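Sample pair:
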Amino acid sequence: MLSKKEYEFLQKCVLLEKTTTNKLIKKYLRDGLDEIKPRVQEWEKQKQPYNQLNLFDLNKKKEQQCSMLEEADFLYPGKE
């Protein structure tokens, strides 16, 4: 949203540049983004990954726990 004064100034700039409002906005937005691009790239380099060490794979399907002795029927007397 623009104030009335900002809108009037924008219209004067459009007339001066002999272009449309959208083209003028895109042109100067591109220029502004080009200026800030190195700062964004530096920030991206410094950002730490979500799970930097990957100690735990939270998306991995949980395995069923079992007892090694449960399968050894010969250890339990009376069990066949």
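The chain has two helices and no strands.
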